[in-house]
Write a structure and sequence with these properties.
Helices cover 67% and strands 17% of the residues. The protein is α+β, with helices and mostly antiparallel strands. It has two domains: 359 residues, Outer membrane efflux proteins (OEP); 83 residues, Outer membrane efflux proteins (OEP). A four-stranded antiparallel sheet has the order 2-3-5-6, with no helix packed on it. Strands 1-4 form a two-stranded parallel sheet. A hairpin with a 6-residue loop joins strand 5 and strand 6. Helix 9 packs antiparallel against helix 10. It is found in: Cell outer membrane. Keywords: Cell outer membrane, Membrane, Transmembrane, Transmembrane beta strand, Transport.
């Protein structure tokens, strides 16, 4: 039993030592040129080029743009070419007015018709004008939908990009903690060798170093996950390794009133809901236009030839134009126009209600985001002070420990305080950066940011 216990201790010691070596080796790889430096502007460019959802949304926008034509609205005439040939074989018995009669079995007749026919609706209660305006509004709605998709994608890319930088900064803090723990082991070992401290202190220093190594390795996994997530958004191979070169510390300051005004003016979701609301008003007017007379001009040029073995004519051929005007006046169609107009009004009311709901949701999201953004900025100032104090405290505690004027517990506490302060500062800076990007998205300025970083 004792032998098993000794063997287990040896195995654990080897594993811990390997973990520390793996952590150091991995960080050496991070500092090497194997990691490709990537700016936010480049990440955005790659992501927008490769994102399939944006390509689909752009196709929808192109479809809406293609639909905005005079022909689709009903302004232009329709021209058709028609041709037909008919053959018949009939038994004929005819009695003429003159008293003559004719009987023939298997009389054949052939008819050939060809024409070019045109129709042009010259008046339909102004419905064609409303349809054209509606098509233009639908194009505008599709554009706002596309813009919203682009903004959402930009936000996701920026969030993932800064998360990669955030994870790397956390790794740097944990590496600094490991270096202090490694130095502490050397000092404790030297003291133990000359009999100035107990083995307990040396073992505690090694245990703390192993705990720091474990935290470091866990953070390496977080960094790798952040890299995979970014590659997914960029449409890249998951094995590509990037170093995010843009800092999370560059944070803009915004005025509440100016930003709220821009949100109400430029928010793509709000503009899309507003455009959809306007579009539904045309449905009502288009249905109402059906109550008016419809005037259609028509004309055709035709050719016709008949050949028959029985009857008054053995052959007949004609060519020429015919044209005219046709007026259609709706008198009664089962009250369907009334029903469709009522439904169009309900759809219009629903669109107005939907707009008001979206407006409330956008304002509420802005209020929440701006409030969190202000708190994050306050936390940055506080944690900067804490980090400065903790840095000075760890330097003093380390010097005192080397001189034997403080215990390893005091040094460890100062060490953890410094680590926690740095990590909290990173948390606040990352939160503020993401909230800043969210504010840009809500205010419709994230596309302008894209132009700036490119």
């Amino acid at each position: 039993m004792k032998m098993k216990k000794v063997t287990l201790i040896i195995i654990l010691s080897v594993l811990v030592g390997l973990s520390g070596m793996m952590a150091q080796e991995r960080y050496a790889i991070i500092d090497s040129t194997d990691f490709e430096e990537l700016s936010l502007g480049e990440a955005v460019r790659i992501g927008l080029e490769n994102n399939y959802n944006l390509k689909i949304e752009d196709n929808f926008r192109e479809i809406a743009s293609n639909n905005v034509t005079l022909g689709n609205a009903g302004f232009l005439p329709t021209v058709d070419g028609n041709a037909s040939m008919r053959w018949s074989n009939e038994d004929v018995e005819q009695q003429f007015v003159s008293g003559d009669s004719q009987t023939r079995d298997g009389a054949r007749s052939n008819t050939v018709d060809a024409s070019i026919d045109a129709e042009w609706i010259v008046f339909d209660g102004l419905g064609m004008f409303k349809r054209y305006e509606q098509l233009q509004q639908q194009e505008m709605t599709a554009t706002y939908s596309w813009k919203n998709s682009v903004e959402s994608t930009l936000y996701q890319i920026a969030e993932s990009y800064y998360n990669l930088r955030y994870s790397a900064e956390q790794l740097r803090v944990l590496k600094e903690t490991m270096e202090i723990s490694r130095a502490r082991i050397r000092i404790a070992s030297d003291k133990y060798d000359v009999g100035k401290t107990s083995k307990t202190e040396l073992l505690t220093a090694q245990t703390d170093y192993n705990a720091d190594s474990s935290a470091y390795i866990n953070q390496l996994n977080q960094l790798q996950q952040a890299t995979i997530n970014l590659n997914l958004l960029l449409g890249q191979d998951s094995e590509r390794q990037y170093y995010a070169s843009d800092s999370i510390n560059a944070i803009s300051l915004y005025s509440y009133e100016n930003l709220k005004e821009e949100v109400l003016k430029n928010n793509s979701l709000l503009k899309q809901a507003e455009s959809n609301k306007i579009g539904t008003t045309y449905n009502v007017e288009i249905v109402r236009s059906e109550r008016f007379p419809r005037v259609t001009a028509f004309g055709s040029y035709g050719y016709s030839r008949l050949e028959s073995q029985a009857g008054f004519l053995l052959s007949n051929q004609s060519t020429g134009f015919n044209y005219g005007l046709r007026a259609t006046i709706p008198i009664f169609n089962g009250l369907n126009i009334n029903r469709r107009e009522q439904n169009a009004k309900i759809e219009k009311d629903n669109a107005e209600l939907s707009y008001e709901q979206v407006r409330l949701e956008v304002i509420a999201e802005f209020e929440r985001t701006y409030s969190s953004y202000q708190r994050a900025l306050g936390l940055i100032e506080l944690e900067m002070d804490n980090t400065s104090i903790a840095k000075e405290n760890i330097e003093i505690a380390f010097d005192r420990y080397k001189l034997g004027r403080s215990t390893f517990l005091e040094l460890r506490e100062a060490q953890k305080n410094a680590e926690d302060a740095k990590l909290r500062l990173l948390d606040a800076a990352f939160a503020a950066k993401i909230l800043e990007i969210q504010l840009k998205r809500l205010s419709g300025n994230i596309l302008e940011e894209r132009e700036r970083i490119n």
